[in-house]
User: Fold these one by one.
Assistant:
Number 1:
Amino acid sequence: MSMIRREFVKLFGYGAAVSAAALSGCAVPEATRTKARVVVIGGGWGGTTAAKYIRMWAPEIEVTLVERNPFFTSCPISNWVIGGLMSLAEATRSYEGLSRRHGVRLVQDEAVEVDPVNRRVRLAKGETLSYDRLIVGPGIDFMYETLPGLNNAAAQARVLHAWKAGPQTEGLRKQLEAMRDGGVYAIHIPLAPYRCPPGPYERATLVANYFKKRKPKSKVLILDANPDIVSKKGLFEAAWNDLYKGMIEYRPNSELVDVDAKTLTARLQFDNVKADVLNVSPPQTSDRIAHQAGLVTANQRWCEINWLTMESVAQKNIHVIGDSTLSAPAMPKSGHMANQHGKLCADAVIALLTGRPVNPEPMIANTCYSLVSDTEAMHVASVHRYDPAQKTLVPVEGAGGVSKARNTLEKAITESWSRNIWDDMLG
Amino acid sequence: MTGAEAPFFVSDANNTCEKEDAMRSAIPKTGAWYAELALAAAVAASTATVAQAQEDFQARSWAASCAGCHGTEGRSQGAIPPLAGRPKDEILRAMLDFKADRRSASVMHQHAKGYSDNQLERMAEYFSKQKK
């Protein structure tokens, strides 16, 4: 039996043995049509990557990408804009390359309803898309209902999150530019898991960098709901101590109870903190389309998936990628990771649609760069493999790690990384 | 650390059906199916040199995990070196040196240690064949 399987596996180009589970009994094969159709909801780090790679690896499959925004703005690197080191235009890209170079059908619209039974997606402007496989990379939404004072449009226009790039990024930058010298910029970090573990610490650091140059009497206050710095702790602390002494105050265990948007006051459990610029991310959850489609299964926030295929455990033929997934062990919610998810998903979806076995040994990796001054950056990296016993992706022991110290080479690497990965997603 | 929340349960049901269907549709349902399969394998093996580059989907998928930094198919702009079209031995030697800490790096040792030598060899082969 094992000899037969080996021969079979050789035909399909896999070096590893196929799992026994794959040959157990099952149901009716999928109906075939002339051309398989994949719909992707979300033109973010995951969705764009999945769309491009399906077209690149299997041009016989039709792919439609639905995205509400007319162009792509990168949230990773957007802290550089908030810190005054870069314009938002430099972190903005067109989606056109996906259609021109890869034949993805681009639809600028919003998905309002997924019908998992009939395999259809209804869009806000009225069109309905049919799919054989649906890939949902919708990103995050904010649980404003947990902060009553912030649960209205006026308050949200005044107390920004800037955790989705675009107008919020420029809005926060403008607030900082308008702030008086001697003022306080307070950033609240919700309890993990949240989008981009090192992101808020990088933002605090780059704002301090801006203050040091232009408003040296000003202060940065980090109100962290978490019990400690969640990512690159030693490296951030070293930067704060070496470069911004006395400018950054870090307060852990500072869960936000409410916000007074008029007075820019953060209400903590035992304290009220007033700021001149208040920057808050409420606790995060999957975007609403994931909730509507019945994909959210964990803590009413995140979507559990099969890590070999990214297919939802709750809805057949629907795959979930990026921040809205229930993270695997030690897996960050990062743009880089969503880009990796997109490729894992693309490969699996192609396999499922074209009748070849799904890769039983997926490998994905993450490298996340943080800038901490005009010239120095540092990283955290990890590599993840599939563990059949735990049925999930786990970090490879002995791999991964952080920079020994912040350094100038890694700033150049970060710039190179951003060009390469944006092209990998959109070009 | 961010990580997963509570005990993690994943149903295998969704994956099993498609995989099994895919395999079923490829296996002829006759008594001599093993003989047919062996014959097909022999044919495939004889054209393996030509077919292997196209059929190593697994290496292609592993190599895709490098593209976030090194660019699609290893075509890079800027400070990060390209991989596309470089000699297989050169890429493999570099990765094995990173993995064994024989060569210093900012991050590559941390990635190289995540893959087996066999994986690294097949990934190096894949990149060597990509257009620059």
Number 2:
Amino acid sequence: MAQALINVPAKARRGEIIEIKSLISHVMETGYRRSDSGDLIPRDIINTFVCTYNDDVVFRAELFPAIAANPFISFFTVATESGVITLSWTDDKGATEVRTAKITVE
Amino acid sequence: MTAAMMRRLLWSGAPGLLAGLVAAAVVRAGDIAPADKRSDYSLMSRDTQAMQDDDLANPGMLFVLDGEMLWSRKDGAENRSCADCHGDAAASMKGVAARYPAYEATLARPIDLEQRINSCRANHQGATPFAWESKELLALAAFVARQSRGVAIAEPADEKLEPFIRAGREMFERRQGQLDLSCSQCHDDNWGRRLAAAVIPQGHPTGYPLYRLEWQNLGSLQRRLRNCMFGMRAEPYAYGAPEQVELELYLMWRARGLATDSPAVRP
Amino acid sequence: MDEGRHPATTRRRFLTGAGRLIGGLGAVQLVAIRPGGATPDSMAAAIRRVVGAADVRDGKVSIEAPPLVENGNSVSITVAVDSPMTPADHVRGIFIFNEKNPQSNVANFRFGPRAGRAGVSTRIRLADTQKVVAIAELSDGSFWSASVDLIVTVAACVEGT
């Protein structure tokens, strides 16, 4: 399981704009680098990143090789209700990782 | 100062005085003045500093997390984890990275933190050592070094380290390679100026292992020293070579007093 | 705010239909292949795939990035769009492009009014000194853009091989 550092505030006031930060361990191999023998190293990147808040998608990203290794993405969402914020990302091999964080909204 | 007098001082339990003697024996005129000594962090761009400062945005912390897992993982023929002997790393490892390389009596020479981790694996876990620059070795070293964050790099107090510090200094000041360049010429004499567009730091290893943007990965001080020597068009020393550890030791002596800031971020 | 930051300063208009770029990129099309393999043409094509036939106007979008990049492997960039983010008036997407990497796209970010603030921060790779363009799509179907010129330097001591 790849390491990831996710920051979602545990508590927020209703209507408050909160920042969600994510840092994911991934080589983000561009597909343009060559190995010592001269062969192209195949592309292997996280290409999709989605944030859902309870059941609604609130943020979506499509990533290309120009995103740096160990991708860092930070964005905002409005704290509407208590529940679960889910971050999921999928790589070129089709593997998906999911992280969840509970949020209490008063 | 005869050997007998040194021994008497040692037995009298005056390690501070001894450390002063070691330091006095090695300081020389061309060194960076104490008032000018500053961490490489202070010469980085604001963006690089910001990346280091936020534990949730510092890619080195991903490796610290891996190291935390490895710390508790039982391994080897003894089926023992680091935690089984050392307990809570925050307590037992505080200050450790700040005083490595350290003298290892069985080898009669200094070893660095990565070598210590591997010797623990072999001697106390019955496990095979991790390869140099392997993900596991770097993660464990990062986790251990993280526990020393903020701790000042210690002045080597063991008099037995003195000849190795001298050997490291000699390498640091020697002109070498196709460019006939010494480490000292850039890092003692021209720090703060630019080489191409990059600022030359003083070259203090306060933050190792660190995330280097050039590597897009975490790496050790030994890897960085090999990069330096390649950049100077000199033959780099092999991983684990005695010269590497002597150079590490000299650099840590040279950085004494500066705070550890592992895992650092550098370009 | 801080030294080392500058807002988008470009004043550029994209003509529709013909797909030709005027202004700073020059009426003369530069076809020399730059390091990385991309050209301003391929960036223009990538932008057209997003905006279609619509006009792209200057304004509303700001890009924060260090003008002098310490290492092209990781450049911190923040794109923000001036918008009330209400259901009636919000940003639907932010699209980032580059001029000289092998591929013109950097990332596409999609939002709704639940974002609260139209902004995103990430780290990108830049193969060479080049222009980075950010385009915002609003809920009314309009497109707005900003660009920055970033200088990318090489590390002083690079690794062997």
